[in-house]
Amino acid sequence: MSLELERERLSAFFQFGQSVDCVVFGFDGVSLQILVIERGAEPFYGAEALPGDLVRIDEDIDKAATRILHDLTGLDNVFLDQLKTFGRVDRHPMGRVVTTAFYSLINQTKYNPRPASWAVKARWKSLAELHEMAFDHRELLETALDALQSQVRQQPIGFELLPEEFTLTQIQNLYEAVLNTQFDKANFRKKILSMGVLKPLDKTEKAVRHRPARLYQFDTQRYHSLSKQGFLFEL
Q1: 99 FRET partner, CA 20 to 30 A, in 17, 63, 114, 200?
Q2: Which whole number is the average pLDDT over 159-182?
Q3: CA-to-CA dists, residue 98 to 106, 114, 115, 135, angstroms
Q4: Is the pTM of this model over 0.85?
Q5: Whose CA is closest to 119, among 39, 20, 36?
């Protein structure tokens, strides 16, 4: 088959778009938070959505995710994990668009989202505050949440959402928020301390009305050393 005939045969396959959407999780000390934008462009003008847009023709998909998150929310230096590709035929009302979802877990106190480009607003919202979302973004969010919940049970990534020094109560609140469950206080503390990855500090909370609790740090070096010996972080 000639090159021209092959181009003609394949032309229809090059007539739809590729986008990326970013699911960014944070924690405000009480509840799991999601970074959302308010769309200032059609379709779904005025609707809440995940930060996302079309990939440029000359752009790698990973670089597109970083660019789009920055363009719409101002966030930089966010590590994004590729999650899944969503390709339902009717997911975009203006034509065929396949999207690749990325997700990230960050300490939201270190990032201040600000809307830019065609995003009218960029803000953190809890899962309970989210209702209808543009496109199939609710499905993307639920898929990312499932992946996050699986990952935090097997890796100590949750500590990235806490301040450098934290209490055992803060750890428990974090994992209960992410996993949407309740742990027995005594059992949770016994298990998390038995892992040997927390470093107790000679410090306590300040400016609290209750009895000040002891502060801890996550011992990264100790965790990596234990991992090489076959240690598994499991909650």
Answers
A1: 114
A2: 91
A3: 26, 27, 24, 12
A4: yes
A5: 39
